[in-house]
Amino acid sequence: ILESSVDMSETFIIKKGRELAQEDQEKVIDTLETGGLVVYPTTTLYGLGALIFSEDGVARILETKQRPWGMPISVFTLREKLSDICDIPVWGLPVLTSGLTLTHVLPAKPNVSSVITQAGSLAVRFPDNELITAICEKVGPITATSANTHGGKDPIDIQTARDELGDRVDIYID
After folding, report:
1. Which of 13, 31, 56, 154 qualifies as a cystine partner to 36, CB 3.0-4.6 A?
2. Comparing C-alpha atoms, which of 139, 144, 140 is closest to residue 122?
């Protein structure tokens, strides 16, 4: 289900395991490109996404999560786009190409906001599902933080994410 807080009466049904319909993809992309927030499923918890290059989106992440400034935010990016946001040390190549779904902490490039980094380092994950991969292919790196308030309940399902974040999120994808 895709729901928008802009008009909560507008609901789209998306069956699990299928791609988002083209019009739904466009709505998600438009929302992210205009500084909006999207809750999306991952293989573990629900994530809260904003474009990492959107100052408004990143600020909204911190406000929505009630997260203190200065705490880094991990990101999802495609393997082939990693060098756009991080310097890749030679020692990291074997791990980065291993196919493991780990969080990698790498030196951030200067184009990445210090709001989401810590001491010049960026925590990066590679998407391990089709939905997040498709979003990253269309809009670039997105935040990969959990869809809850800081210290809140783990968002193991869409209802928990909605209970935690409410209408401060523009789109929920289940």
Report:
1. 31
2. 144
Q: Distances from the Cα of 149 to the Cαs of 11, 54, 74, 107, in angstroms?
A: 24, 20, 15, 27
DSSP-derived pairing of the beta strands 11-12 and 2-4? antiparallel
User: What integer pLDDT is reported at residue 16 of this predicted model?
Assistant: 47
- Give the model's confidence band at 91: pLDDT under 50 very low, under 70 low, under 90 confident, else very high: confident
- Output the CA angle 163-102-57, nearest 5 degrees: 45
- H or E, element range at 64: helix 55-65
Structure tokens at 112: 């990445």
For 173, the token pair is 């994808």
- Return the pLDDT at 116: 95
C-alpha–C-alpha distance, residues 171 and 174, integer Å? 10
Instruction: List the beta strands (DSSP E) in 27-92.
Output: 38-41, 46-49, 75-76
**C-alpha to C-alpha distances, 32 to 15, 88, 102, 104, 129, nearest whole angstrom:** 22, 27, 25, 24, 19
